[in-house]
Amino acid sequence: MLRAAQRLRFFAKQVQWILLSAEALSNIDMVDVKEPALKKQACDVSFTNGHSNGVLVAPLLALRVKKLAPEAVLPTRGSALAAGYDLSSAYDAIVPARGKALVKTELSVGIPEGTYGRVAPRSGLALKHSIDVGAGVIDGDYRGPLGVILFNHSDVDFPIKAGDRIAQLILERIVTPEVVEVDDLDSTSRGEGGFGSTGVAVAPVVVVEAPSS
């Protein structure tokens, strides 16, 4: 009975940790880190059980940001419900027509545990200037400078001024399960249907012959 009670208390602690982490993830704060290195932080969560008090350690879910140059602009969200943090160029730049350019933000970021950063286009630049973003994945252990690859699909050069918002950083949850080799996979209704197999069905062609005279 004692072991069962201990296992039950341990399970309750794990459930509480998951709930607290999920709640914190939905309300991530941004921290401007001025130390030479991006330090990992933690928060202590106290709980009470039937016998004793304990301390549960969970990762601090904050987007840690370090400026690498005075020209760097901290990421900002355009509204309270905005999904992404706007990224700004630290310097003037030009994205050539039908070409690409690596635009520097002069920022280094520490992505919260359990997430990765996705650099996504800004809708206004895509619609008005045909500007797209490439190679936009930031791993949680990357600590180098954050650069944004911009593609210009228009026929005119696209000028960028220092401080212009060029992309947005979106934090997305990620799972990294163990890779397991198997001999076979479970069957599905789709099976091996590939490109276009679930798209709009092609209407049959109906041939109407002219009446014979």
TrEMBL record:
One of its GO terms (biological process) is dUTP catabolic process. It catalyses: dUTP + H2O = dUMP + diphosphate + H(+). Its EC number is 3.6.1.23. It is an enzyme of class 3 (hydrolase). Pathway: Pyrimidine metabolism; dUMP biosynthesis; dUMP from dCTP (dUTP route): step 2/2. It holds the Pfam family dUTPase. The keyword Metal-binding applies. One of its GO terms (molecular function) is dUTP diphosphatase activity. Its cofactor is Mg(2+). CDD domains: trimeric_dUTPase (cd07557). Keywords: Hydrolase, Magnesium, Metal-binding, Nucleotide metabolism. It comes from the Eukaryota. Residues 72-199 form the dUTPase-like domain. Belongs to the dUTPase family. Involved in nucleotide metabolism via production of dUMP, the immediate precursor of thymidine nucleotides, and decreases the intracellular concentration of dUTP so that uracil cannot be incorporated into DNA. This is Deoxyuridine 5'-triphosphate nucleotidohydrolase. It comes from Riccia sorocarpa.
